[in-house]
């Protein structure tokens, strides 16, 4: 966070400073060549700032750079008054003033991927800022080469014509929209989706969707993914063949939710979920993006959904334990289909000489009561694992980097494991290598797990292998009461004073081996391993079945 702020401030200062310097050099000195070079450098800084701050307002800087380039151009041509340059300046002024509003208007348009339609207008509007910077760079080059002013005017008019066409189309869509929606709506009507996956979340959360896409595809019915943040469009579209639609406004959602839809699935409790729940003709189903004893897993907001698909009875009990009253008929136990590829070890493996241990610290959370992160105390844990000859897979939560302190702590642990790998040859998996592995691959490679309170434990539980849980609240006996899943694991105290005892149980004696199987059934359902995911698929298809089909299939 602090590093991101510094980066943004540095970009802002560099862009503004170079723009002012370029103008001063070209307007007040005779160093035309140096001034044009500074103008190009200012354009490069502006382009970099647009990537760092996509919503940056660069009107003043761009106007200064354009004025500087025109002054330099006039000097190169030795003209006191060049009408072509005057006309170029007017076109550039219009572009500088219009680019921002056109980008804003374009950002409010519906966009789609994996559909046989391209919404060109918002795409072009989004790139007008880059086009203007490119035009100014071309004019700086033309000035340096002393090309005729008509060349500059022609290039400016070309970009101006494109901006004008975009402005007219956006105005038409705003003031005279087509009945029944635009081209994206028409393409969705042809696609006839029966359900949608709705998603809104902070950056870096796309894993919440991608973990469910393979199972939604296996339902065997046409569907679409509705997004509320534009940065997710490309990565999620790359993960599925289903249409992916970005809806920036409620009006865009009205266009995307075509009449063929019957069910909406959700994977979190994002505030914008209410924008979709308002469509009362749909059945709204919460899937969650993991099963854990964390406080957010018993969010009272779950009550707004028509159905809550849960992995096992433990999830239902979790709501009751938190005092959240939800009618029993809203819950449907479907297992956790993502674990179907996890290899099960039916017999405990005790006394391993060189075990592989998966360590999965979670992040600090948005609120103090959801901070289960063990990174601050993990140094001693990892050193003890290394002393026992363990190979470590360090797979941190995707949000870890959002907290600078956590990022530093993770960096130190990574350095520790990299140094041990160089010294001993043990193939610890850290950093990018760990992120490239799926959770299933990590679980299948490990003999045991050390984790914070998180959904990783539920997934690992399916394997039957032992796990340890860090008690970061230093709650003692109350820890297992609050987080029952820890009762079948080995609890690490916050101060790591029992780390030797826990690692012995985890990697050698494993006295809780039998208890884990009962916990596994309670948390993950009692479904056959060979058809584990069918519980979810059957439940989803049941919700998609027309009412008359369900009535006909119900025995009298």
From TrEMBL:
Keyword Cell inner membrane: no
Keywords, comma-separated and alphabetical: Membrane, Transmembrane, Transmembrane helix
Pfam family, one: Glyphos_transf
Gene3D superfamilies the UniProt entry points to: 3.40.50.12580
Transmembrane region(s): 20-46, 58-75, 81-103, 124-145, 151-171
InterPro entries, alphabetized: Glycerophosphate_synth, TagF_C
Origin: domain of life: Bacteria
Protein name: CDP-glycerol glycerophosphotransferase family protein
């Amino acid at each position: 966070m602090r590093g991101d702020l510094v980066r943004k401030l540095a970009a802002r200062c560099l862009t503004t400073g170079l723009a002012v310097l370029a103008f001063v050099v070209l307007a007040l000195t005779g160093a035309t060549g140096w001034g044009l070079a500074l103008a190009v450098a200012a354009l490069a800084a502006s382009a970099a700032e647009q990537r760092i701050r996509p919503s940056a307002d660069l009107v003043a800087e761009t106007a200064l750079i354009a004025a500087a380039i025109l002054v330099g151009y006039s000097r190169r041509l030795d003209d006191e008054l060049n009408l072509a340059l005057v006309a170029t300046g007017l076109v550039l002024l219009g572009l500088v003033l219009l680019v921002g509003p056109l980008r804003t208007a374009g950002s409010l348009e519906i966009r789609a991927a994996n559909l046989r339609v391209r919404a060109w207008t918002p795409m072009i509007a989004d790139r007008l800022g880059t086009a203007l910077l490119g035009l100014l760079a071309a004019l700086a080059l033309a000035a340096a080469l002393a090309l005729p002013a008509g060349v500059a005017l022609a290039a400016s008019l070309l970009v101006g014509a494109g901006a004008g066409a975009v402005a007219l189309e956006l105005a038409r869509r705003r003031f005279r929209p087509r009945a029944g929606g635009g081209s994206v709506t028409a393409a969705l009507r042809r696609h006839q989706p029966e359900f949608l996956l709705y998603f809104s979340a902070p950056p870096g959360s796309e894993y919440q969707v991608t973990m469910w896409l393979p199972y939604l595809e296996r339902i065997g019915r046409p569907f679409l993914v509705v997004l509320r943040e534009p940065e997710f469009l490309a990565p999620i579209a790359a993960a599925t063949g289903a249409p992916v639609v970005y809806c920036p406004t409620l009006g865009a959602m009205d266009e995307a939710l075509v009449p063929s839809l019957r069910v909406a699935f959700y994977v979190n409790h994002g505030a914008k979920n209410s924008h979709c729940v308002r469509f009362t003709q749909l059945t709204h189903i919460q899937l969650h993006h993991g099963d854990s004893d964390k406080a957010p897993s018993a969010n009272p907001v779950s009550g707004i959904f028509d159905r809550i698909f849960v992995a096992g009875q433990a999830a239902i009990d979790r709501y009751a334990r938190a005092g959240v009253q939800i009618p029993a008929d809203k819950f449907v136990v479907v297992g956790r289909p993502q674990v179907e590829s996890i290899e099960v070890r039916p017999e405990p493996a005790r006394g391993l000489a060189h075990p592989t241990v998966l360590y999965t610290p979670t992040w600090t959370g948005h609120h103090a009561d959801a901070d289960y992160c063990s990174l601050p105390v993990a140094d001693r844990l990892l050193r003890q694992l290394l002393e026992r000859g363990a190979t470590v897979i360090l797979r941190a939560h995707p949000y870890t980097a959002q907290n600078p302190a956590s990022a530093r702590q993770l960096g130190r642990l990574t350095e520790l494991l990299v140094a041990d790998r160089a010294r001993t040859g043990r193939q610890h998996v850290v950093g990018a290598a760990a992120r490239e592995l799926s959770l299933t691959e990590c679980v299948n490679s490990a003999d045991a797990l050390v984790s914070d309170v998180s959904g990783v434990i539920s997934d690992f539980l399916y394997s039957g292998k032992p796990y340890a849980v860090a008690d970061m609240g230093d709650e003692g006996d109350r820890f297992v009461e609050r987080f029952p899943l820890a009762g079948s694991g080995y609890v690490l105290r916050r101060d790591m004073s029992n780390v030797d005892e826990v690692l012995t149980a985890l990697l050698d004696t494993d006295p809780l081996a039998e208890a884990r199987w009962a916990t596994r059934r309670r948390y993950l359902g009692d479904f056959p391993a060979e058809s584990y995911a069918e519980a979810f698929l059957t439940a989803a298809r049941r919700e998609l079945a027309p009412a008359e089909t369900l009535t006909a299939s119900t025995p009298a």
